[in-house]
Write a structure and sequence with these properties.
There is one protein chain. The protein has 497 residues and is α/β, with parallel strands linked by helices. The protein folds into two domains: 7-145, Rossmann fold (3-Layer(aba) Sandwich); 178-413 and 434-474, Dihydrodipicolinate Reductase, domain 2. It is 30% helix and 21% strand. The chain contains 14 helices and 17 strands. It has helices at residues 17-32, 52-59, 67-72, 90-103, 122-129, 152-165, 181-192, 222-225, 230-247, 256-268, 278-281, 415-424, 434-453, 471-474; strands spanning 7-12, 40-46, 76-80, 109-113, 140-144, 171-173, 205-213, 282-288, 290-292, 295-297, 315-321, 331-337, 344-351, 369-375, 379-387, 395-403, 460-463. The chain has a nine-stranded mixed beta sheet with strand order 16-15-14-13-7-12-11-8-17. It binds NADP nicotinamide-adenine-dinucleotide phosphate. Residues 13-18, 46-48, 83, 114-117, 119, 145-147 line the site of NADP nicotinamide-adenine-dinucleotide phosphate.
Length: 497
């Protein structure tokens, strides 16, 4: 049984959106389940001047109004802090000391960086200067939000900076995809089922497809997104981490470094992109204006804050290979984009077909698929062939599906809930390690460089509400992407599971 020691969680950027939309609700859920330690406090910190009460009023916006909240909010405190020089953190240090005394909490601190990324190097330095980053007696941990760098060089630089002030085992680089139940379940599916484990390799798997589609566009964050794009925002972090979980070898034990060692081995085996491969292996796109559900939708370049000549990709699809014993010759495909027909993230394992088509031609044989749905409606779907009732031997595809929501009395924790609790318990398994983050950057960097320097590489338009540029189909070499839903449905969230 893992224990959660008494501590104070300091959230930098506490007046911001992430704190009230995700972090406080996740902490409240932990509180309701009695998973927070008996002595615990949150100390919010940002530049805005707020009293404890004003901070509480502000961050409980997404919580229900009930007695639990009234109790929970008593554990929330706030300290205004500027971040120009190390001395600015003195009031924070004094407040922490006062709270530890007043509430009888030992000096265990978790520092959560939910500020603009430009402060991810600065805050750890100031914590260090004030003697808060390391302690012989107490634990000190640092959670770093995404994005971790904007390219390989800045990610390396940030790692170097952080390691000046914190040790690697104190640093928790968040990737909220790893907090999702189905991602963790991938390890269980693979390594606890005798029916899947022997098939999980190039002998039986034809290709692996990962889709992460969003129906939303940039939603007023065009200014931020225009400097990022789908490759940085989704592929380098979340989707590469998924690749790590799908493709890794069994870890020796279920323990943070054992699992993360296997993920880094996958990343080491990725076949690097050479510049002349990029336009054949990677397709980028940008949504254009269209009509969705009888409403006019603006194109990406017309969005507020976006450069009208922008070449930032809102869609990317790529084909790549993992050059190791298990995956030799198996193509991996990633596809992600904004303003696609639905919101879904799934991993599809396409199995090879049988060697001989006993029941007629190849169109009458089935390519089994195992679909691991990460969001929404987390679950697993297996597609296999069954005889169509009646005369003859016609084969049809049927589904065997499992939805997490069907598990009675089990609520799936939110990703932030799971990750916060893990950090409180000192378990970094579901956080990205520094070397893995750099390796993932190393993999995508040649693509980003080529896009930035070679104007010949096209960026294709796709009407908002469609599945991206048609050119992405060519990557598949005769096969097809899986379309979880072909058409928009009323709620825009139709998924097959
Ligand atoms: N929102 C999300 O859903 C989400 C999801 C994933 C990752 N993230 C990451 O999490 C971080 C926080 O996101 P957010 O959406 O909460 O951002 P936000 O709403 O803009 O909040 C940023 C916070 O940082 C504080 N801050 C401190 N020093 C600052 C400075 N020099 N300039 C500007 N702000 C400063 C701001 O408060 P004061 O002005 O009071 O100091 C504010 O509390 C970002 O790095 C973002 O990439 C966010």
């Amino acid at each position: 049984m893992r224990t959660t020691s008494n501590h104070i969680l300091v959230i930098f950027g506490a007046s911001g959106d992430l704190t009230k939309r995700k972090l406080i609700p996740a902490l409240f859920d932990l509180y309701k389940q009695k998973l927070l330690p008996t002595k615990f406090a949150v100390l919010g910190a940002s530049r805005t001047s707020l009293t404890d009460e004003e901070f509480r009023d502000r961050v409980v916006e997404f919580l229900p109004e009930n007695e639990d909240v009234a109790e929970f909010r008593k554990q929330l405190f706030y300290q205004p802090v500027s971040n120009n020089q190390a001395d600015d953190f003195l009031p924070l240090k004094l407040r922490l000391e006062a709270l530890t005394q007043q509430l009888g909490i030992p000096g265990n601190y978790i520092f959560y960086l939910s500020t603009p990324p430009s402060l991810y190097g600065v805050i750890p330095e100031f914590l260090h200067e004030n003697g808060l980053s390391r302690s012989e007696k107490y634990f000190r941990r640092l959670i770093v939000e995404k994005p971790f760098g904007t390219n390989l060089a800045s990610a390396k630089e940030l790692n170097v900076k952080l390691l000046n002030y914190f040790n690697e085992d104190q640093i928790y680089r968040i990737d909220h995809y790893l907090g999702k139940e189905t991602v963790q379940n991938m390890l269980v599916t693979r390594f606890s089922n005798g029916i899947f484990e022997p098939l999980w390799n190039h002998n039986y798997i034809e290709r692996v497809e990962i889709t992460s589609a969003e129906s939303l566009g940039v939603e007023g964050r065009g200014g931020y997104y225009d400097h990022s794009g789908a490759m940085r925002d989704m592929v380098q972090n979340h989707l590469m981490q998924l690749v790590g979980f799908v493709a890794m070898e069994p870890p020796v034990v279920v323990e943070a470094n054992a699992i993360r060692n296997e993920i880094t081995k996958v990343f080491q085996s990725l076949r690097p992109f050479k510049e002349n491969m990029i336009s054949r292996h990677v397709i980028r796109g940008q949504y254009t204006s269209s009509v969705i559900k009888n409403e006019n939708v603006v194109g990406y370049r017309e969005e507020p804050g976006v450069d009208p000549f922008s070449r930032t990709e809102t869609f990317v699809a790529l084909r790549f290979y993992i050059d190791n014993w298990r995956w030799a010759g198996v193509p991996f495909y990633i596809r992600t984009g904004k303003k696609l027909p639905t919101r879904v993230t799934e991993v599809v394992i396409h199995f090879k077909s049988v060697p001989h088509h006993l029941f007629g031609n190849s169109s009458n044989s089935i390519n089994n698929q195992l679909i691991i749905r990460i969001q929404p409606d987390e679950g697993i779907l297996l597609k296999f062939g069954m005889k169509t009732p009646g005369s003859g031997f016609d084969v049809q595809t049927v589904n065997m599906d499992f939805h997490y929501s069907d598990l009675a009395n089990v609520t799936v924790p939110s990703a932030y809930e799971r990750l916060l609790l893990d950090c409180m318990q000192g378990d970094a398994t579901l956080y990205a390690r520094g070397d893995a983050v750099e390796q993932a950057w190393e993999f995508v960097q040649p693509i980003i460089n080529a896009w930035e320097t070679n104007p010949e590489i096209p960026i294709y338009g796709y009407p908002a509400g469609t599945w991206g540029p048609e050119n992405a189909d060519e990557l598949m070499k005769g096969a097809n992407w899986r379309y979880p839903c072909k058409n928009l449905t009323n709620d825009g969230l139709y998924c097959e599971l």
